[in-house]
Design goal:
Blueprint (H helix, E strand, L loop, with lengths): L1 E4 L5 E4 L6 E4 L4 H11 L9 H22 L5 E4 L5 H8 L4 E5 L2 H9 L4 E3 L12 E7 L8 H10 L1 E10 L5 H13 L18 E2 L2 H9 L1
Parallel strand pairs: 4-5, 4-7, 5-6, 7-8
Antiparallel strand pairs: 1-2, 2-3, 3-9
């Protein structure tokens, strides 16, 4: 079902079977590599670093608690560490960690902080002979153009008892707010909502039911 169109001629649509919201058409892998390698930090959707650090602090504390509970004895890989705030917390907690970051600007910043990070995308994860106890992703899943393939790649580097911990915007509040604003402002396009519905960056706002089905597969 159509939720609304965007100025770039893409649209957000909702799945009738699981309520997941997806961008249509989905950007190609080549488009995304160009966007995130060179452009993403310049588009202005990220909050200033110190404000972002405060906003994310409660989520980071909760995520750290989960990783300590479910991944107590091993290496943690963070995908998309950005400014490195969470990797800093892992390091201060004496938890071995590394990062995988696609953005050239963020990669440079992470290296300057002395963090163990490689530049690349999820499909660049090694296929063999490298396993981690846990994978952490915060506000990454909504940027993926093939969530099923991404989860398969991530699962391939998990130890037998490994665990994925992730957080992301889901399918409900953002699209509903965007549609209400569009109606009241009589705009031809659904708004970005500060990046929540920003095309082509936010591709998949999955519902809890959709996530359950995806993980089961």
């Amino acid at each position: 079902r159509l939720i609304g169109t965007k100025a770039d001629k893409r649209a957000y649509v909702r799945c009738e079977s699981c309520d997941t919201v997806q961008l249509d058409p989905v950007p190609t892998s080549e488009e995304l590599k160009l966007l995130y390698s060179e452009e993403y930090t310049a588009v202005g959707y990220q909050l200033p670093a110190e404000i972002l650090k405060k906003v994310r602090s409660p989520l980071d504390r909760f995520s750290l608690k989960l990783l300590r509970e479910y991944c107590p004895h091993g290496h943690i890989l963070e995908i998309g560490p950005g400014n490195g705030f969470f990797m800093d917390k892992l390091r201060l907690s004496n938890i071995e960690c590394s990062g995988l970051e696609p953005s050239g600007d963020y990669y440079k910043l992470l290296c300057e902080k002395g963090l163990d990070v490689k530049r690349g995308f999820i499909e660049d994860l090694p296929e063999k002979d490298w396993k981690v106890s846990g994978v952490y992703m915060a506000n990454v899943f909504e940027h993926l153009n093939d969530p099923s393939e991404a989860l398969s790649c991530i699962s391939s580097v998990l130890a037998t008892d490994g665990c994925i911990v992730m957080s992301q915007p889901t399918a409900y509040l953002g699209p509903y707010l965007g549609r209400i604003i569009q109606i009241f402002t009589r705009s031809p396009h659904i708004p970005d909502l500060g990046g929540w519905l920003a095309s082509p960056y936010h591709i998949c706002l999955i519902s809890p039911r959709g996530m359950q089905q995806l993980c089961e597969r």
